[in-house]
Design brief:
With 700 residues, this protein is an alpha/beta fold. The protein has four domains: 203 residues, Rossmann fold; 159 residues, Succinyl-CoA synthetase domains (Rossmann fold, 3-Layer(aba) Sandwich), CATH 3.40.50; 113 residues, ATP-grasp fold, A domain (Dna Ligase, domain 1); 114 residues, D-amino Acid Aminotransferase, Chain A, domain 1, CATH 3.30.470.20. It is built from 24 helices and 30 strands. Helix 3 packs parallel to helix 4 and helix 19 crosses helix 20. The two termini are 36 Å apart. It binds adenosine-5'-diphosphate (ADP) and magnesium ion (MG). The site of magnesium ion has 3 residues, from strand 28.
Length: 700
């Protein structure tokens, strides 16, 4: 593992070690000592001979050796100089605790850049600045001022917020939760979340990677690498909001609907990252992933000594889309033999209020032996005779043998405390409600589903790429970044879309002639590079049935629209064949996220898209499965499939449209945003029509 010296250094120097209690330079040194770190500790402070009995050194050269890890606590303005000294001394790994860099403004940012420059030149990797440090319990290393060393475990934690890390540490220590490592990444000027995820991905003692992030440094690399690591170990992330540049200033439908968070969501999905909504949820998940085998499938059995919690669990299983296991006849017969006559031998298995540990033991064993059961939740309420401790021991003993995940939910406090302790010691995760246990099993089975997903195959359509190249090049050359309806349609036609026939007219007479040639009815649309949403200004007139109606509509538009939009340069109108289909209007769009690249959108289309906001997003390039899943993720899907005897539309054709746009925007990074809205789809077998399209470009 590349960052090994951060977690298992042979020697640690503390530059800025202090004699003064309460100062960070003192606390870190004391944490190192208190944690029982077995390597050499070198406090560096030119003004002190010793600190709490530890010999102090004036500077790095006086150590007579190069420390494996250097922790820096000196004030921000001296950090660059310290970095230079470290470069000279051939130090390779550093933790910069000091704050006062990028987070305080331009001057701090400049300082930080200087530090990065020196480090890069010298090949030094560093964590921070503005961080709490690194904790590695299995190596008894507490190089932080975050709190006491937790017990060793198999969860690695990465936090972009130091304060949150301190809270997590406190929580973990109070509950005996173990970690392989905890890292506060601070400003992540050098080592970032992905470096650590990769390091933990190949670290033997880490089984689960968890973290709290505010942003991701390199979106594309993250998706690529995290996807590989998720295949080996679960990655559980909390991600707080935060506005992302780029999403705000969007002019297309897709752009205005796609906030930065949507891109994160898609990126996490693609990479198999499990998103957690709270610290509690993250710990719920992390403990199960760390201590239990993965479930083979979604079928859950529940064992309980009371009806109420059993029903709560059953409801939650239903709601989450897990399966309530149907026990086999053989299992039921075996249960009936072991349990009193009044017990319920169906799932949820009720061992009754007077159950002692032995009943739990046999019920758990019999249930887990059933091939129809993939996982079990053991519920316990403290009743008069309940043996919380012995039950915990019995459940743990059985769980170890069976190779299926077992989650406990012992409800109560004082009366179950001894049981909880046994569960903790024996690695059976405990939940404070049946719902939390079910939510955790759901996260586990979703992860299994992701891991066993079919290989991604992106279909390549044969298209006229040359044509698009020439339109895009010409626009960029002329500094035109918005491609209007007419040429946007040429582009999508080149990628296999059908569009209504039509041409451009600059006079009423011309418009009438074109209409005559197209055949009635026709549609008239305003043609102006400055009008993005034509209907908003009365710039779309459908169902025109005669030359006279076309002329009138033309005159009316030319009269009204300049009044509404005096600044718009109006070039004429587009006369278009009227698409006559009983089809549905959907939208296919793309917004290029500044961090993760092309983000595809699908939703109910037409002019209502921004009102209804029934849309789904996913990162391009899309596979057929991705495209289908996007459809399924909207409410529109139910309508498209056909409701109450209404015939459905060609779902596969929409999915294909999504894939074609995905190919277009993947092949043309100059396309910044685009919408096909509406994309009119009819019954299966009919050709969908792209009725309107707009594309905007950016210089690459
Ligand atoms: P904009 O989105 O700029 O307002 P559109 O070209 O999408 O303009 O037209 C608005 C609406 O008018 C469409 O959602 C569709 O319902 C209808 N419409 C536009 N063109 C046609 C056409 N050729 N055939 C049938 N309906 C059309
Ligand atoms: Mg439109």
């Amino acid at each position: 593992m590349g960052l090994q010296s951060f977690f298992n250094p042979k020697s640690v120097a503390v530059i800025g070690a202090s004699r003064q209690k309460g100062k960070v330079g003192y606390e870190i040194l004391m944490n190192l000592v208190a944690g029982g770190y077995a390597g050499k500790i070198f406090p560096i402070n030119p003004k002190a001979d010793d600190i709490e009995g530890l010999k102090c050194y004036p500077d790095l050269p006086s150590l007579g050796e190069t420390p494996d890890l250097v922790i820096v606590i000196v004030p921000a303005q001296f950090v660059a100089a310290v970095m230079e000294e470290c470069a000279k001394a051939r130090v390779k790994s550093m933790i910069i605790i000091t704050a006062g860099f990028k987070e305080v403004g331009p001057e701090g940012k400049r300082l930080e850049e200087e530090v990065v420059r020196i480090a890069r030149r010298a090949g030094i990797r560093f964590i921070g600045p503005n961080c709490l440090g690194v904790i590695s319990p299995s190596h008894k290393l507490n190089a932080s001022f975050g709190g006491d060393l937790p017990v060793p475990g198999s969860i690695a934690y990465i936090s972009q917020s130091g304060a949150l890390l301190a809270a997590i540490l406190d929580l973990a220590n109070a509950n005996g939760i173990g970690f392989s490592s905890l890292v506060s990444i601070g400003n992540k000027a050098d080592v970032n979340e992905l470096d650590l995820i990769e390091a933990f991905g190949s670290q033997r003692e880490t089984k689960v990677i968890a973290g709290y992030l505010e942003n991701i440094t390199d979106g594309n690399a993250f998706v690529r690498e995290a996807e590989i690591i998720s295949g080996k170990k679960p990655i559980l992330l909390m991600k707080s909001g935060g506005t992302e540049a780029g999403a705000k200033a969007a002019s297309s439908h897709t752009g205005s609907l796609a906030g930065g968070e949507v891109a994160y969501e898609s990126a996490f999905q693609r990479a198999g990252v499990i998103r957690c909504e709270s610290i509690k949820e993250q710990f719920d998940f992390a403990q199960a992933f760390a201590s239990q085998p993965l479930p083979k499938g979604p079928k859950v059995a529940v064992i309980t000594n009371a009806g109420g919690p059993g029903i709560m669990a059953a409801d939650a299983i239903e709601q989450k889309g897990l399966t309530f296991a149907r026990l086999s006849d053989e299992t039921k017969a075996k249960l009936a033999q072991k349990l009193p006559a009044a017990a319920n031998v169906h799932n949820p298995v009720d061992v009754l209020g007077d159950a002692l540990a032995d009943r739990y033991e046999s019920a758990t064993e019999i249930v887990l032996d059933d091939p129809n059961v993939d996982s079990a939740i053991v519920l316990l309420t403290p009743q008069a005779m309940t043996q919380a401790k012995e039950t915990a021991e019995a459940v743990a003993k059985i769980a170890k043998k069976k190779g299926k995940p077992v989650l406990a939910c012992f409800l109560g406090a004082g009366k179950v405390a001894a049981g909880l302790q046994v569960l903790r010691q024996s690695g059976i995760p405990q939940y404070d409600s049946p719902e939390s246990a079910v939510t955790t099993l759901h996260a586990m089975s979703e992860y299994v589903r992701w891991r066993t997903r079919p290989k991604r195959v992106v279909r390549l359509f044969s298209v006229n790429r040359r044509k698009v190249e020439s339109i895009v090049e010409r626009h960029l050359r002329q500094g035109l970044l918005d491609i209007g309806e007419a040429e946007a349609k040429d582009i999508i036609e080149a990628y296999g879309f059908a569009t209504p026939k039509g041409s451009i007219a600059t006079t009423a007479e011309q418009a009438a002639n074109i209409a005559q040639q197209l055949g009635f009815p026709v549609v008239l649309k305003i043609w102006s590079p400055d009008i993005l949403h034509k209907s908003d200004v009365g710039g779309v007139k459908v169902g025109l049935n005669s030359e006279q109606q076309v002329r009138d509509a033309f005159d009316l538009m030319m009269y009204r629209i300049p009044k509404k939009k005096p600044e718009a340069n109006i070039l004429g109108v587009l006369v278009q064949e009227m698409v006559r289909t009983s089809g549905k209007e959907v939208i296919i769009g793309m917004h290029r996220d500044p961090r993760f690249g092309p983000l595809m959108m699908f939703g109910m289309g037409g002019i209502m898209v921004e009102v209804l906001k029934d849309v789904a997003f996913y990162l391009a390039p899309l596979t057929a499965e991705d495209a289908k899943q996007m459809l399924v993720n909207t409410k529109t899907y139910q309508i498209l499939k056909g409701v109450r005897g209404q015939e459905g539309v060609d779902i596969d054709a929409i999915a294909e449209g999504l894939q074609r746009v995905s190919q277009l925007v993947t092949e043309f990074p100059e396309i910044k945003e685009m919408d096909i809205n509406p994309y009119v789809v009819g019954a299966p077998g009919t050709t969908p029509i792209a009725v309107d399209a707009r594309i905007s470009l950016e210089k690459k």
